[in-house]
Amino acid sequence: MKTNFAALRRRFPVLAHKTYLNSGSYCALADTVREAIEAYMDDRLAVGANWDVWITKNESVRSLVAQLLGVTPDEIAVTASASAGINALASAFEFNGPRRKVIVSDFEFPTNAQIWHAQERKGAQVVHVPRAADGYIPLEHFERLIDEHTQLVAVTHVCFRNGARLDIPGIVKLAHARGARVLLDTYQAIGALQVDARSLGVDFIVGGMLKYLLGTAGIGFLYVRQELIESLTPTNSGWFAQENIAAMDITANRPSPTARRFEAGTPAVVNCYAAEAGLKIVLEADPAQIESRVRALTARCLQRLVEIGWPAVTPADDARRGPMVAVPTHDPAGLFAQLMEQGIVTSFRDNNIRATCHFYNTDEDIDRFVAVLAGQRAQFAPIS
Ligand SMILES: Cc1ncc(COP(=O)(O)O)c(C=O)c1O
Could you tell me the domains of the chain? Predict the structure, then answer.
C-alpha cells in the first residue's frame, strides 16, 4: 500500500511553521509521541507506580526495534543510549589474545571511537581507517587494515559530519573472511533508511530513538546476533540484565540467555512511552517507502545546490549517502543563524551546515532551503 506522506506530515505540528531539516540532530515531535508522554503523566497521577504496564512498554520497544531490524526480540537489548549499548558490549570483550585490534573509521561519531580507545587499558589496539583524497572511505582502505589480529570492526552507517554512507555489506564480507566481527552504529540512518540486520550481515547494531526513529532522548538499543549472545558475558551489568529479574539474588551474576544480558538497571519508563509511539509511526510509514522518499529529497537537494554553484560535500552516489546533505561554508554558525532567522532549522558540524531529511519533508522544503542559500552565497560560500 502506498504511504500517504502528506497525511503523516500533518501529525508533526512544528512543520506548519518551520522548514524542519534537523532530524539528524533531533526529530520533529509527532502528535502521538506527545500524547504518549502525556499518557505516562496521567498514569503517574491516576495509578502512581504502574509497573505492570511500564514493563510491557519496555517489551513493546524491544519488539518494535526487532521488527524494524528484521530480527527476534531476544536479540535486542533496550539501553539508555547508543553509548550504553557499546559499553555493555565492550565490557564482554577480552583483548589479551591474538585478536587485539579494533578497527574504527574516520567517520565515527566520537562515542564509537572513544569507548574502544577506553578498552586500551584492557589491551585493545584501536586502528583508524583514513579517508581518501575525495573525502570518502573506500573499501580498499578497510581491506588494508582488517587482518587476522582484528577482533572487531566498529563502524558508523552514515557519517554525522558529511552524510557519507559506508559500504557496510562490503565491510562485513571483508571482516568475516578474516574472522572479525562487525558492530554497526546506525544512529544516523535507521528510521530514514531501511536497516535489515540479516541482509547487512552485521553481528551487532546500536542506535537510538531521538533522530529518525521519532522518539526521544535517553533510550537506545543494541542488537546482538543470536549465535553470539551466550558467548559474550558483559561485566557491565545489573538486575535488569539477569535471567530472572525478580530473583533478587545477591550471591551471583546470572545473565539472561537473551540480549537482555546487555541491559543494566530500571528502564527509562517515560522514554519507552515516547519511543514506542515513534517506532510505530516509522513502521506504519514503511521503511522501504521512507528510504525512497528520503533518497529523492536528498538527490533533489544535491542537484539544486549544484545549480546555484554551491555543491555539497555529501557523495552524490545514492549508495554512498544517507538522509543528510552537508553544505560547506567558512562560517557555519553565521549561516546557521541566517537560516534560523528565515524559519529553516538545520544544524552544523565542522565547516558544514547539515540539512537532514525525513519522510515528513517535501520538495518545497528543499527548494526553500536552497533558495535561501542562494541569497546567502556571496557571504557564506567557502572562500577558495
Ligand atoms: C552516529 C551517532 N552515534 C551515536 C550518537 C549518540 O549516541 P548516544 O545515544 O550515546 O548519545 C549519535 C548522536 O548524535 C550519532 O550521530
Answer: 5-30+286-378 (3.90.1150.10), 33-283 (3.40.640.10)
